[in-house]
Automatic annotation (TrEMBL):
Source organism of the structure: Talaromyces atroroseus
Record-linked InterPro entries: Amidohydro-rel, Metal-dep_hydrolase_composite, Metal_Hydrolase, MTA/SAH_deaminase
Protein name per its UniProtKB record: Amidohydrolase-related domain-containing protein
GO molecular function: hydrolase activity, acting on carbon-nitrogen (but not peptide) bonds
Keyword terms: Hydrolase
Chain ranges of the Amidohydrolase-related domain: 61-411
SUPFAM superfamilies, sorted: Composite domain of metallo-dependent hydrolases (SSF51338), Metallo-dependent hydrolases (SSF51556)
């Protein structure tokens, strides 16, 4: 049995009762949180050499961040000046067509390393060569839900058979820390038959679905002109909506679309950075929340956001809603933090997202002295809690994350991901893109009229 004890820390549980401890301690056995309490452990615990002790003085313990819409990335910072259609045709699709198993592994290692470094403990990753992604997730120690980019054959991505094979080969790896869902790229690279086949495969396998829906107005207009329905309506009629589906983006929704998402229990990934950078608009967050839709948060591909940092995303996601609606009461830190943790965990069916007894031990430890991000802080417990929430959403970035524990294992300690030689990985990624960028030039297929 492995045991970890973090003591003398501030503890932001984000649980139903909104419990906050200062100072307090968390005890972990194997993959579960077993104790949360005020004060410090007994002398017997503190002197037990079999226990991994982490001093929480001037630290904050909180649930790890759940990136609900993620793509492994190879081309961050390449082609950022291109308009959307040209970007997809010249960068995104050629880059994923140029992959092989070895390249996908290196890209996933780098993507998961950067995610863990900035506080993410779970990714919902749609990409290619799922076996390579699973190998990388296994080595890094991150929790991962993986899916293929399923599209029609002429688009040079993945087929349903690829995704079904991924499920049988890799679902529930590492004692369930790695899951495989079905993936569906989007309706502009699909048709009604393929969408229905994806829905049927999801049900047959008893797994979930990761899908792009209604990301841009161009997409919605194109699909409506072709089929007389919105992408959400097509997904509903194809059996692709439900409590095991994560629909990414959902920016351009009709009233009926929102009603269908709510009725089916479909979760939505709010991806404000990607949607803004690509000029796709701002999701109707207030309307989705009012309708009772579970909404988490996602970075999307690093190409679309240029950063893996979900702390930065939380800030932007709150501020853009306030600016849009000219209402400073929106995007409260209390709500935004839960979107980035508990809501994402619920969407993926993971018993995590809060610091609670019996929950999976997926948590991060933040240095409250790092670069003055959390200064000032009051000592009064309730004032301290409120200020911490505010600092986390509006004043923090991922560089403050000192330790990361995933599935009860210390994956990052003192800012270093334990499974990775950072300099080696950096040079591998540079070398990979040097070669891949040349291959991309020959892999353009000018068939997609919208965004991904």
């Amino acid at each position: 049995m492995s045991r970890i004890v973090i003591y003398n820390a501030s503890i932001l549980t984000l649980d139903e009762d909104d419990n906050f401890y200062y100072p307090g301690s968390v005890e972990i056995e194997n993959d579960r949180i077993v104790k949360i309490y005020s004060g410090n452990p007994t002398d017997e615990v503190l002197s037990d050499p079999s226990i991994t002790l982490l001093d929480g003085t001037d630290k904050l313990i909180m649930p790890g961040l759940v990136d609900l819409h993620f793509h492994t990335s190879v081309a961050k910072g390449f082609g950022d000046e291109l308009p959307l259609k040209e970007y997809l045709e010249e960068v995104w699709y050629p880059s994923v067509r140029a992959l092989n198993a070895e390249r996908a592994y290196t890209a996933a290692m780098h993507s998961y390393w950067t995610a863990v470094r900035s506080g993410t403990t779970t990714v919902n990753d749609m990409y290619r060569f799922v076996g390579s992604l699973a190998d990388a997730a296994s080595r890094i120690g991150i929790r991962a839900v993986l899916s293929n980019e399923v599209a029609l054959e002429e688009h040079g991505l993945d087929a349903i058979a690829d995704n079904i094979a991924s499920f049988h080969q890799h679902n529930n790896r590492d004692s369930g820390r790695i899951k495989v869902w079905m993936g569906h790229e989007w309706m502009c690279t699909s048709n009604l038959e393929l969408m229905s086949q994806v829905g049927e495969a999801m049900k047959t396998l008893g797994t979930g679905l990761h899908i792009h829906l209604s990301e841009s107005q161009q997409e919605v207009d194109e699909i409506r002109a072709k089929y007389g329905k919105t992408p959400v309506e097509i997904a509903y009629e194809s059996g692709c909506l439900g409590p095991s589906t994560v629909a990414a983006h959902c920016v351009h929704l009709t009233e009926n679309d929102i009603a269908l998402l709510a009725k089916t229990g479909t979760s939505v990934s709010y991806d404000p950075g990607s949607n803004a950078k690509l000029g796709n608009g701002i999701a109707q967050l207030q309307v989705l929340n009012k309708a009772g839709v579970n909404v988490g948060m996602g970075i999307d591909a690093f190409e679309c956001e240029n950063s893996p940092d979900m702390f930065e995303l939380m800030k932007f996601g709150s501020l853009i809603q306030r600016a849009l609606h000219q209402d400073a009461s929106l995007g409260k830190p209390y709500d935004i933090l839960r979107m980035a943790t508990l809501n994402g965990a619920m969407a993926l069916g993971i018993n995590a997202g809060v610091i609670g007894i019996g929950k999976k031990a997926d948590l991060i430890v933040i240095d409250l002295k790092k670069n003055q991000m959390f200064t000032p802080l009051l000592k009064d417990r309730q004032s301290r809690k409120k200020m911490l929430e505010s600092h986390l959403v509006f004043g923090c970035n991922g560089s403050a994350v000192q330790h990361s524990i995933i599935d009860g294992k210390v994956v990052m300690k003192d800012y270093q991901v334990l499974a990775v030689d950072e300099e080696t990985l950096r040079t591998q990624m540079d070398s990979l893109f040097e070669v891949l960028s040349q291959d991309m030039k020959t892999l353009r297929i000018d068939t997609c009229k919208g965004d991904k």
